Amino acid sequence: MSKPPIRVGFIGLNPNNKWAATAHIPALRSLEEDFEIIGVANRTLESAQRTAQELNLKSAFASPAELIASPDVDLVVVTVKVPHHFELVSAALKAGKHVYCEWPLGNGLDEARELAAMARETKSVAVIGTQGQTAAGVEELKALIADGYVGQVLSTSIIASGGNWAGQTTADSYYLSDGANGASMQSIALGHTLVAIQHALGNFDAVDATFVRNFDTVEISDTAEVLPKDVPDQVMVQGRLANSAAISIHFRGGVSRGTNFLWEINGTEGDIQVTGDMGYPQIVKLSITGARLDDRVLAPLECKRNRSPAENLSPAADAVAEIYKRAAADIRNGTRTAPTFDNGVALHELINHIEVSAAAKQKGVVLSFD
Amino acid sequence: MSKPPIRVGFIGLNPNNKWAATAHIPALRSLEEDFEIIGVANRTLESAQRTAQELNLKSAFASPAELIASPDVDLVVVTVKVPHHFELVSAALKAGKHVYCEWPLGNGLDEARELAAMARETKSVAVIGTQGQTAAGVEELKALIADGYVGQVLSTSIIASGGNWAGQTTADSYYLSDGANGASMQSIALGHTLVAIQHALGNFDAVDATFVRNFDTVEISDTAEVLPKDVPDQVMVQGRLANSAAISIHFRGGVSRGTNFLWEINGTEGDIQVTGDMGYPQIVKLSITGARLDDRVLAPLECKRNRSPAENLSPAADAVAEIYKRAAADIRNGTRTAPTFDNGVALHELINHIEVSAAAKQKGVVLSFD
User: Fold this and answer.
1) What CATH topology corresponds to A133-300?
2) Distance, CA of B348 to CA of B17 (rounded, Å)
3) Cβ <8 Å between B252 and A246
4) Which superfamily does B6-130+314-340 belong to?
5) In this structure, are residues A105 and A85 in contact, taking their beta carbons and an 8 Å threshold?
6) CA nearest A232 in B: which residue?
7) Measured between CB atoms, which of A257, A289, A363 is closest to B291?
8) Potential cystine with B313: which of A124, B164, B317, B334 (Cβ 3.0-4.6 Å)?
9) A234: nearest CB among B155, B258, B268
10) Do the domains A133-300 and A6-130+314-341 match in fold?
């Protein structure tokens, strides 16, 4: 006899909000035995009603507080902008609900630590949406490395594009340009990628970072405004992994007409290249090629140990579905297989270390050769 | 009426020493109006005689000292291993000769400074072989950037292979693995590349580096010995150029079956990719592709302002020939158009800064997420 589905309430769900609607909804609908999407709370009741109707959900709640208080909701999914995470997640935890919160967990490390402490206290299943460790391509890469495809990993290098954080944005995305919102390129684009790196290659040992800001203002394309921007548009990280491999990462704001995601892994016996359309290994389709020993040319790699991605789901929705699968097991069995708020805190700590390192950089003397 | 050719004597020339024989000799022979290769001095007279015969040169000198003292030699070319540069170059300068010395100039910054001071005193034309600024592909790139192809440069990223400095080498190349010889990956492979970067994109502002050594020993393939190695096999540099663009460089020892040279330049209006078979932009054939404005796909770029490389010369020999052309003008006209020892000192200073920065890195706390 199957157990009753876990009843999910969304805070911040809008068919126009591409992420929640295109990744979370298909993910949950692919897991019908485990989950039922009950309803939604948005900023206004009207918006919630519109969403509920469009997505065919039972309930439109008048406010997040009403959703959180509802006895019909077991799991509160928070897919709003980062500055609202703390208030909504802590309210949900205090109400005894399980929570799935999008990454970043908090607006900065302190908020994240406080939320994780709350989750430990309430014993809720508190899941952080870091799908860098559940994306099918990353799992595939991890299995290849674990199987010894490249031998001992000597180095890894990533050149990636963040999509946002360059000289232009939209009114809706402008909050990404304001550091006060905790939604910078290093916390979002790099953060998700750090998770993927650690999942496939192991933990970081030491890292050092340099940030560059070429744009101090940003053009808002839909309003023609020019607004201040105080977050970096170039994020460079270099260091060592715990296995002593060298790591170099360069995230650039905006989009390149050339490389948007290149992740090379070099080992004693082989080399792997992972490529994709953007620096979000948890979202885009990853192509994996490799060569080892006497191979001279990279060829597509298929990894037999791979978890097959669900058919009909995009890579992004598939990675989210994998998190929900684990969350369902955790809620039912008291396990902690899905990424937890404590994992989220560790990632915040790593990003904080990167930010502190970048901030400590002194402007050097001019170094010239010509 | 043409002037008499400048008479060149080589210290360290051997048909089996691929670099001098395959780059310098064809370069000079393509400039017959300007140069005559008089002869050679090697470690033994026999070796010099063998080389002179094979390459059809007039003179085999019994020793470097004899070559330097010969009234038939105007320009002494030093193409021996780095530890011998100081003694040979300073002897040539003291004898009043012009000098072409291969990069690195000195075994470390202090030697380079002393040699440059000597050259200033003797007023010799003292040329340093940093062809990163004369390679046709780099000139082409420089012209594209200067023409505004990418608009304002926002960032540049390089992933490259050093060829040497991994876990295996040959007896003849083992000296590269011993830091005491001043021939590390950061001084040779990275050094030449830094010159190319500065030539195309402008000076460095601030840089920071991390070195990793995965191999503490090196297998000597032709003798089956295992010998110590104390130089890094992973060299990472990140920082800003003087124009504020972000720069990230990752040189890996050995050869990758994937990326061996990828140099991407991203600007406000376009993107350029430079690729080649190895991280030596002054030697390998560089392919340049780009896209700008509404272009969606990178396409080969031809730069109209480009100096056409000499026909029949390899890219490496062509870049060396360009240095010799300038050296001829400098010797005849008292100009300083070829890279000088002072330029060499500036490059040594930049590399020294990189080495100091890397050495200052503390082993960090273990940073984990999983």
Assistant:
1) Dihydrodipicolinate Reductase; domain 2 (3.30.360)
2) 25
3) yes
4) NAD(P)-binding Rossmann-like Domain (3.40.50.720)
5) yes
6) B246
7) A257
8) B317
9) B155
10) no
End-to-end Cα spacing for chain A: 77
Q: B363 vs A206: CB contact, 8 Å cut-off?
A: yes
Distance from CA of B159 to the nearest CA of A (A): 7
Query: How many Å is the maximal CA-CA distance in chain A?
Result: 77
Tell how strand A270-275 and strand A261-267 pair up.
antiparallel
Closest residue in A to B267 (Cα–Cα): A256
Pair A33, A5: CB distance under 8 Å? yes
Q: Which long-range contacts (CB under 8 A, 24 or more apart) does A300-303 make?
A: A301/A140, A301/A144, A301/A149, A301/A272, A303/A140, A303/A141, A303/A143, A303/A144, A303/A147
pLDDT by position in tens, chain B (length 370): 578 999 999 999 988 767 899 999 999 999 999 999 999 999 999 999 999 999 999 999 999 999 999 999 999 999 999 999 999 999 999 999 999 999 999 999 999 999 999 999 999 999 999 999 999 999 999 999 999 999 999 999 999 999 999 999 999 999 999 999 999 999 999 999 999 999 999 999 989 999 999 999 999 999 999 999 999 999 999 999 999 999 999 999 999 999 999 999 999 999 999 999 999 999 999 999 999 999 999 999 987 776 778 889 999 999 999 999 999 999 999 999 999 999 999 999 999 999 999 998 865 555 666 5
Question: Considering only alpha carbons, which residue of chain A is nearest residue B212?
Answer: A246
Residue B34, min C-alpha distance to chain A (Å): 25
3-class secondary structure, B306: coil
Enclosing H/E stretch for B119: helix B109-122
Q: Pick from A161, A238, A241, A287 the residue to mutate for testing the B interface (most B CBs within 10 Å).
A: A238
Cβ-based contacts of A165 with chain B (< 8 Å): none
Contacts of B273 (CB under 8 A, 6+ apart): A258, A259, B262, B263, B264, B265, B288, B289, B290, B298
Contacts of B87 (CB under 8 A, 6+ apart): none
Distance, in Å, from the CA atom of B160 to the CA atom of B280, rounded to the nearest integer, reads: 8
Q: Which of B153, B271, B88, B269 shows the shortest CA–CA distance to A257?
A: B271
The CATH class of the A6-130+314-341 domain is alpha beta
> What letter does residue B174 receive in the DSSP assignment?
G
List, as own/partner pairs, every contact residues A55-61 make where C-beta atoms lie below 8 angstroms and the sequence separation is at least 24, other chains included: A55/A13, A55/A15, A55/A21, A55/A25, A59/A9, A61/A9
Helix axes A189-201, A341-359, angle to 10 degrees: 110
